[in-house]
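Q: My labmate handed me this sequence with no annotations at all. I'd like to see what the chain might look like in three dimensions before we decide whether it's worth expressing. Could you predict it?
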Amino acid sequence: MGWLMPLIFLSLSIGIGFYIVYPNEAPPPPVGDGWWGRGEKTDSKVDESVRKFEINFSNDELKDLKSRIKNTRYFEGLEGTKFRYGFRPDYMQTIAKYWLEKYDWRTQEKELNKYNHFKTSIEGIDVHFVHVKPKLKPGQTSKPLLLVHGWPGSFYEFYKMIPMLNDGKHGGAADEFYEIIVPSIPGYAFSEAPHKTGFTTKEAARVFHKMMLRLGHTKYYIQGGDWGSAIVDHMAVVFPQHVLAVHVNFAQRQLGPPIILRIFIGSYFPSLILPESDHSKVWPFMPWFYYVLEEMGYFHLQGTKPDTIGHGLNDSPVGLAAYILEKFSTWTNAAWIDLDNGGLDNWKTDELLTNVMLYWMNGAITSSMRFYKENIAMFSETNRPPIKVPSGITDCPGELARTPEPWAKSHYQDLVQYTTMQSCGHFAVFEEPALMATEIRNFIHKVEKGVRP
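A: Here is what I predict for the chain of 453 residues:
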């Protein structure tokens, strides 16, 4: 146990250091306007039209992709490393072979186009979104629901869950229907990347709110995970008169000395800090600390010099696939790091590659990584305004960092629903669409009926 105190003090020092390097200003998210297009904003009339489009990459683009995969220069891996050194090169060759010989983009393209896609210009950039309206009978109404993804995911994460929100078989009430809007964060997939620095989750929140108003929704529900949870967090804080309720599967936890001190004290006296049922979500601290050290290298790269690594990932489809798919291993289940294939056989390869294709074919990996650079200062905020609209949280045991319910209540002040799941990881909606559909439907049903714990 002699190593415990020094390491805990080290983690405390790192946390305080981060707090000093990125001083906490915590300004309220901007409500007004912005301009992220090329050049200066002009006084010309803004095009507010909503334009439908279909996904259709050219044969030349697909031919170029296959050529690059075929010409990949591989390296020799080490014996017996499993996924502890990252994506094993011999297993990557298996994925690449499948990509070349069995993966059919045209089939996946047809699947993506089964829902309607649109673009609209907001603050100088084109914002892409999927829009799915339920089939209603006379007298029935629907509720608008905005679903926001994170990194390295995409709008595609929600595809399997969308029909479950309207089938009456996954919680809530059979007569509750949802009009689904799934945008791509600017710089991801088909949403144009900002051309200026400073586009944070707060700006994304404002842009998505404008998008909802443009679609005629002055009141709506919101849900998000990863970056999506931070974006909907800001929407709930800044636009409470429009947001009916917010649900997240990655609860926002503020950093800084206070929370680190709780973790430190709880390492010795956990019952002074949390109920016993929540102990495993925070302690033992050191295994989690080692896990974070292993998993957060990408965060430092993307939060400091995203363009440097972007040159390699934007040029090599195999490099990009390795970088993205590795996250679907340990971020789903930390124990998969000790498997030869990283546990990726628990996912459908076609679905994983389709998500990768949305980054590759749109050249979006670098702009998506810049979102970390723009947002890194937010992790030192300790006085973030609380959410006062009805809130729901899904707590997944495989999540990178978990927020116990007592800690969540300080931020989500009207916490209607907090559910700890038996199984799910960081990509909860993609991994467990039926469970998440039930969670969301039950949550909105409680909000509609005024139910409180």
